[in-house]
Amino acid sequence: VQLVESGGGLVQPGTSARLSCVASEFSLYMVWVRQAPGKEREGVAAISPGSGRRWYGDSVKGRFAISRDNANNTVYLQMNSLESEDTALYYCATGTGLGYWGQGTQVTVS
With 59 labelled, which of 22, 78, 81, 85 sits at a CA distance of 20 to 30 A? Predict the structure, then answer.
């Protein structure tokens, strides 16, 4: 499974950004994970294949929204009210035991 993230960059606090991840196979749960410098990886959001189930990490609840477009094999992460603490490398992942990862896209809130 190939995963390619995009949409990162430098954004100002309080603003929004949207990340995208295109997958070569798209029948599984899709997950966004982030890793900030010097910190452990943190689960951000997850979405079931039919979009009926969504999960969010406590630090992003109410600010981030995950969605997917099954017709285009794309999962999105809409990030609102961004904070400096959201600065991290954001990955999308999928597969049993999250065996497949993209290369990551950097989000810097400053």
Answer: 22
Residue with tokens 């600065």: 87
The larger pLDDT score, comparing residue 8 to residue 83, is at 83
Query: Is the pLDDT assigned to residue 110 strictly greater than 90?
Result: yes
SS3 6: strand
What confidence tens digit (pLDDT) does each residue in 36-76 have? Answer: 999 999 999 999 988 789 999 999 999 999 999 999 999 99
**Residues 107, 90: contact at Cβ < 8 Å?**
yes
Tell the residue number behind the tokens 């609840």, with chain if given.
Answer: 61
Strands 9-11 and 105-109: parallel
Token output for 99: 């065996």
